[in-house]
């Protein structure tokens, strides 16, 4: 691998993978799965807060 042009501490820790994948945009099934994951994550978070609230009362 060639060294990145920007050698900062974060790049050293992450291996510079952010530069590799930052230019690619998800398409098709990958974009769909990203949206489903975000929606399910939000639903999980809201349900967790609601159950916590309900269990304390």
From TrEMBL:
Source superkingdom: Bacteria
Molecular-function annotations in GO: protein-transporting ATPase activity
Subcellular location: Cell membrane; Membrane
Recorded coiled-coil stretches: none
Keyword flag Transcription: no
Transmembrane segments: 36-54
Pfam families, per database record: SecG
Membrane-topology annotation of the record: Multi-pass membrane protein
GO biological process per UniProt: protein secretion
Alphabetical list of InterPro entries matching this protein: SecG
Record keywords, A-Z: Cell membrane, Membrane, Protein transport, Translocation, Transmembrane, Transmembrane helix, Transport
GO annotations of cellular component type: plasma membrane
Reported function: Involved in protein export. Participates in an early event of protein translocation.
Similarity field: Belongs to the SecG family.
Listed name of the protein: Protein-export membrane protein SecG
């Amino acid at each position: 691998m060639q060294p990145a042009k920007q050698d900062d501490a974060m790049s050293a820790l992450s291996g510079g993978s952010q530069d590799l994948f930052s230019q690619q945009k998800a398409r098709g099934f990958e974009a769909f799965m990203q949206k489903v994951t975000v929606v399910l994550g939000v639903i999980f978070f809201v349900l967790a807060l609601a159950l916590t609230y309900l269990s304390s009362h």
